[in-house]
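tokens incoming
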């Protein structure tokens, strides 16, 4: 049902006429996010610039029972910010200020629309470090990172977004503004509401400010690349590195298909005569870094590495890291539609899972490139396909379902960092079970009784 004209007029009074889009041509960029083959036109887009405007929009939407889909930069990979029919898209990219960097307490207060890169740069200027680094860090927003509990290349050692959130300003579905958390390292007063909103995918409230924890930067760093003729060798090298009590900053994996696409795109001299590539990075005290780099190189060679290359300097290390961050973009160049998936298994099951993905590609006659965070078991099988080919898309969906079923069977999860959104809500009950689903539904009803916040996401 289309928005009533008086509702649009109210939105213009709240945000200003220049911050409300209603023309079809203007709405098209907001009808999809980074998830392939999912789109729906919104009825309007509202750019909020203050928490007060967000509160007013939600209060109006609650009164009129209008669905609201909150959006940052639209880089999500699970359809979480795809509109629903008749929706207001509430876009927060104009709320992008870094409000405070507190060196005494190692914290940073930022508006939800600031990019991950802006937060990282602000921390660096203060001589501090914000570790979470999703592949889309240059454009993804902190509000979106928190709503999806985003991960990144450094997740093995430093954790994910949740580990760095100290406090949140959240606007509830009726327009009430809630603050949860503070700058204290210890705080166990009451329920941890902050953690409830992290990873909630915009279904429980709209995050408008985030208080983040910062840490001192590592003093030293070394980056290595190892190549292997067999996938099992790379997986065993990962297991042996962890067993040696080495926790690398980065322990990333690319398969043959991804290596070729990345090298064709970035041209940084990656070897093409291998089945698997590991990007390894250790950081910390320079003496410990040097020792760990030697140990990792030795472990890789003992597991049959064809070649181990140590980055000469920070510039080369940066190029290697950027090449890995660009894996999805590189794969996206070779097919009209690129579907990036996200499954996580225990590290001990990595080789088995990668082989299973390869067998699924053959079974369904599909091209799949696999890369990911091998150190924490998070794989990204990426389907190179064409959404105009209905038969191929049917096979893609069947293959996707089998991959997630296998991840569950191996003791893993259906998403390590992308979220459930629209893409995985049909399989969430199988993973979560009846009790978890019931509790999640009751929480959602309690915080959003009229069901206006991102309806249809996570579950119906």
């Amino acid at each position: 049902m289309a928005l009533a004209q008086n509702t649009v007029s109210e939105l213009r009074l709240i945000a200003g006429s220049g911050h409300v889009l209603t023309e079809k041509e203007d709405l098209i960029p907001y009808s999809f996010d980074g998830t392939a083959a999912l789109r729906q036109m919104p009825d309007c887009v509202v750019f909020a610039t203050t928490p007060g405007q967000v509160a007013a929009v939600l209060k109006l939407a609650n009164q009129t029972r209008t669905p609201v889909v909150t959006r940052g930069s639209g880089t999500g990979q699970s359809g979480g910010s795809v509109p629903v029919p008749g929706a207001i898209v509430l876009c927060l990219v104009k709320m992008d200020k870094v409000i405070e960097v507190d060196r005494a307490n190692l914290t940073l207060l930022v508006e939800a629309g600031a990019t991950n890169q802006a937060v990282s740069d602000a921390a660096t200027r203060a001589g501090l470090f914000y570790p979470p680094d999703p592949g889309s860090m240059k454009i993804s927003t902190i509000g979106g990172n928190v709503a999806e509990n985003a991960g990144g290349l450094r997740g093995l050692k430093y954790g994910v977004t949740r580990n760095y959130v100290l406090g949140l300003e959240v606007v509830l579905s009726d327009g009430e503004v809630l603050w949860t958390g503070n700058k204290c390292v210890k705080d166990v007063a009451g329920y941890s509401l902050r953690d409830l909103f992290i990873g909630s995918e915009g279904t429980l409230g709209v995050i408008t400010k985030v208080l983040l924890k910062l840490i001192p930067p590592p003093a030293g760093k070394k980056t290595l690349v190892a190549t292997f003729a067999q996938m099992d060798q790379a997986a065993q090298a990962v297991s042996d590195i962890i067993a040696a009590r080495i926790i690398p900053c980065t322990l990333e994996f690319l398969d043959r298909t991804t290596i070729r696409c990345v090298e064709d795109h970035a041209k940084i001299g990656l070897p093409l005569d291998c089945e698997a590539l590991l990007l390894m990075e250790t950081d910390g005290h320079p003496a410990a870094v040097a020792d760990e780099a030697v140990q990792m190189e030795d472990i890789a060679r003992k597991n049959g590495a064809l070649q181990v290359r140590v980055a000469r300097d920070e510039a080369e290390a940066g190029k290697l890291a950027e090449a890995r961050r660009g894996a999805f973009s590189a794969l996206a160049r070779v097919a009209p539609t690129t579907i990036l998936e996200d499954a996580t298994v225990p590290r001990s099951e990595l080789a088995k899972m990668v082989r299973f993905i390869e067998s699924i590609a053959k079974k369904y006659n599909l091209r799949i490139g696999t890369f990911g965070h091998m150190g924490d078991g998070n794989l990204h099988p990426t389907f190179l396909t064409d959404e105009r080919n209905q038969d191929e898309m049917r096979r893609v969906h069947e293959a996707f379902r089998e991959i997630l079923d296998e991840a569950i069977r191996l003791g893993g999860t259906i998403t390590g960092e992308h979220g459930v959104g629209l893409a995985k809500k049909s399989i969430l009950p199988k993973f979560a079970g009846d009790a978890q689903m019931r509790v999640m539904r009751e929480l959602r009803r309690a915080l959003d009784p009229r069901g206006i916040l991102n309806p249809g996401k996570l579950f119906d």
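note: The longest strand covers residues 220-228.
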